[in-house]
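Progress against Task 2.4 (sequence-to-structure conversion) is shown through the following example record, which the project officer requested during the mid-term review.
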Amino acid sequence: MKILQLQNNINLKHNYSLFCFQPIENGFGLTLANSLSRTLENDIFGTTVTGIYNDNIFFNSKNNLFKEDILEIMFNIKNIVLRSNFFVDDILTIPLTKKKIYTTNDIFLFNKNIKVIDKSIFLFTLMKISDINVRLRVETGKGAKLNDDTFIEDNFVPIDSVFTPVIKTNYKIKLIPFSFNGKEKLKESLFFELWTNKSISSKRALYESIKILSSRFVNLLFEQKEEVFEDIRLVE
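Structure tokens generated for the chain above:
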């Protein structure tokens, strides 16, 4: 089986790629596609904002610091796309030094291992200067986490967090004739589409998912004793 990358497009929002797996034994294309999709959506690590430290900013209506309400600000913060080459549990800050529109370009990064992918995302509009910074909790994980599952601290507001860098997947399976020893046979070709949020390339994400799937089956094989497989009998 060969894997070909037929398309690779990058825009402001995502990295899209189209891959082709061929030739595949008939009936195995669907199994492979479902396994890859599940692994990509649930097992690829990513870094994201998991909450906001209150510091008496957001929920004190007397402050009138922001033009937007708290729900809109939290929604904008959830759109921040981050990349980290290491597991992190850190804090990002946004100094409120000027009355202006704040974007992800205004995030101050103490940890140089964390990178903001899109620096043009709108966050909020500051109506008056404050000596308090906006502080964001950043963590590395996989899948998604609802705020009910987040450890709650004093003055900390958890938000629903999506760690996975994979936006979506899609696939099609086609029967294509392949030549084997001078004879043509119909085999499956899997056309697999993959979108990521650019914190990881779609090619890298696919590689990581294949590596995860391979390691799981290898571990399943080698962690069993030979006697276990000797006891397995085929039902005729």
